[in-house]
Amino acid sequence: MTQYKNLIAGEWVAGASEADNINPSDTNDIIGRASHASAAQVSDAIAAARAALPKWNAGTSQLRSDLLAAIANELFARKEELGELLAREEGKTRAEAIGEVGRAANIFRFFSSEVVRIRGEKLASVRPGIDVEITRDPVGVVGIITPWNFPIAIPAWKIAPALAFGNTVVFKPSELTPGTAHALAEVIHRAGVPAGVFNLVLGTGAVVGDALLSGVDAITFTGSVKTGNQIVRRATERMIRVQAEMGGKNPLVVLDDANLDVAVGCALDGSFFQTGQRCTASSRLVVTEGIHDRFVDALATRLAQINIGPALKAGTQVGPVVDRRQLEQDLRYIDIGSSEGASVRVKGELLKRETPGHYLSPTLFTDTTNQMRINREEVFGPVAAVIRVKDYDEALAVANDTSFGLSAGICTTSQKYARHFQQHAEAGLTMLNLATAGLDYHVPFGGRKGSSYGPREQGTYAIDFYTIVKTSYLSV
Questions:
Q1: Is residue 173 located within the same domain as residue 304?
Q2: Cα angle vertex 222, ends 385, 320, to 5°?
Q3: Beta strands across the sheet bearing 26-36
Q4: Is 66 exposed, middle or buried (0-12, 13-18, 19+ CB in 10 A)?
Q5: What are the CB-based long-range contacts (under 8 Å, 24+) for 235-238?
Q6: Is residue 75 part of a domain?
Q7: Which residues are designated catalytic?
Q8: What residues make up the catalytic site (predicted)?
Q9: Helix, strand, or coil here: 313?
Q10: Is the same domain home to 170 and 50?
Q11: Sign of CA dihedral 146, 150, 153, 157
Q12: How far is Cα of residue 475 from the mean position of the Cα atoms in its chain?
C-alpha cells in the first residue's frame, strides 16, 4: 500500500499517526495511507522554510523560472497518470481530472514566465538630488491550506506564485486528497527545489492547520466559510498577511429572451457537473416567469439523462460525492428544502452501482424563495433551486441578495441587460451565456462579501499577495 509521507527540510518523514485514503467510487478500495504530521513537525517545517528563505530569495529569477518550468513539464508529461489518481481519490471523472492536471501544469508554466518580468518603478523625487525606487520583496514563509475539490489546481495557483516571487512554502492539503498532494510534492522535489524551500505537511486542520497559523508570515486558504473566518481572525491577531476564498451561493439569471438550450446547458454544467462540488457552482437559478416553465421542464429532462457512476468508468458524466460526511450534508439540505415548502421537481436519491460508493443523483427544487436556507447556505453538492421572478430588475435584486459574492451568471440575448448585469452584479466573477463555473488560469480569481478576503489569486494579480512593496530613497 502506498504510504504518503511529509516532506520537511528536503526529507520524507513519517508523521505521528496515519489515516486511510478511501476511494469514493469504491469504498472497499484503500488507495494509500497518509502519515499525519504532529504540531512539532509543522514547527520543524516552518523553521526549515525560514532557514531556506534568504538563499532562495537571493537566487536569480532564471533559477526559479527554470524550476517552475521543470515542474510544468513533468505535470504535462504525466497528466493522464496523475489525473487517474486524482479521479480515483476525489471522485471527479477521469476527463475532468486529467484536465485539472493540465491546468496545474499551465499555471506553473505561466509563473515560470512571470518570475523573469517582475516590475518595479523609478521615479523622480519632489526634492532635488534624490531618486525613488519602488521594488517588491517576498512576504516570507507562506502557509498554504487547500481543499479537496480541486486538489492539484488550487495548490498550483498558490504554490507557483509563492515560489516565483521568492517565498518559501509550507503546504497543508485536505486530508481527503493526500495522494494527489503527495504526487505534486514529489514532482516539485524532483525538479530540484532546495531543501526547506517547499515543505508538505499532511493532516487535519485541528492539528496541522492550527500549528501552521502560529508560525508563518502569510497564510492563503481556500475552503469553508466557518474555517476561513477563523483563519482570518487568527491571522489578523498576529498581524500577518491573509488571503481567504470561502465559497459562494452563486446565481444564474435566465431571462425570457435567453436561448433555452444555452440556458439549460449553463445550468446543467454549473449546478450539477463535478457533483456540484465547486465554489462557483450555480445553486440559485433565478428565472423570469415567461421562460420559467419551459426552462424547468427542459432542465429536468436533461437531469434524467445524466450518467452517474464510478469516476474512472467510461461514459460517466458525474462521479460520486467525495465522502460520507459530505454526502450526509447533501441529504440533510435536501430534507431542509422539502421541509421549507420547496417543491421537489427532481429528487436526489442514493444510487447503487457496481462498486459501493457515495453516489447521489441531482436534486432540483422549484417554488422556492430567496429566504429559504437552501438559497442562503452553501450546500456544495448536486442540489439547485429555481427562484421564479417577474423581470430583470427583480432578478438582479434576488441575485445580489446574498451574503456571498463569488460568481454570477446571466443568460440573455440582450446587450442592454448583459452590460447592466456585468456592471451591477455584486460578484467577483460575471458570466454571460456561460456556466458560473469554469475559469482560465491566467486571470484573477476571487469574490466579494463573504466569499473572499484579501487580494486576488491567479494571473499577474497574484503578486499583490506574495510580495511586499518597498519604497527606497537614494541620494544621488
A1: no
A2: 50
A3: 2-4, 26-36, 17-23
A4: middle
A5: 238/213, 238/214
A6: yes
A7: 245
A8: 245
A9: coil
A10: yes
A11: negative
A12: 46
Which residue is associated with the grid cell 415567461?
Answer: 290
Cβ within 8 Å of residue 305, ≥6 positions away: none
**DSSP assigned state of 326:** H
Residue 399 lies in domain: 251-432
In this structure, are 198 and 266 located in the same domain?
Answer: no
Per-residue pLDDT of the chain (476 residues; tens, 9 = 90+): 799 999 999 999 999 999 999 999 999 999 999 999 999 999 999 999 999 999 999 999 999 999 999 999 999 999 999 999 999 999 999 999 999 999 999 999 999 999 999 999 999 999 999 999 999 999 999 999 999 999 999 999 999 999 999 999 999 999 999 999 999 999 999 999 999 999 999 999 999 999 999 999 999 999 999 999 999 999 999 999 999 999 899 999 999 999 999 999 999 999 999 999 999 999 999 999 999 999 999 999 999 999 999 999 999 999 999 999 999 999 999 999 999 999 999 999 999 999 999 999 999 999 999 999 999 999 999 999 999 999 999 999 999 999 999 999 999 999 999 999 999 999 999 999 999 999 999 999 999 999 999 999 999 999 999 999 999 999 98
C-alpha cell at 91: 471522485
Domain count, the chain: 2
Closest-CA residue to 1 (of 21, 25, 27): 21
Taking alpha carbons only, the member of 246, 63, 240, 225 closest to residue 154 is 246
Q: For cell 471523472, what's the residue?
A: 93
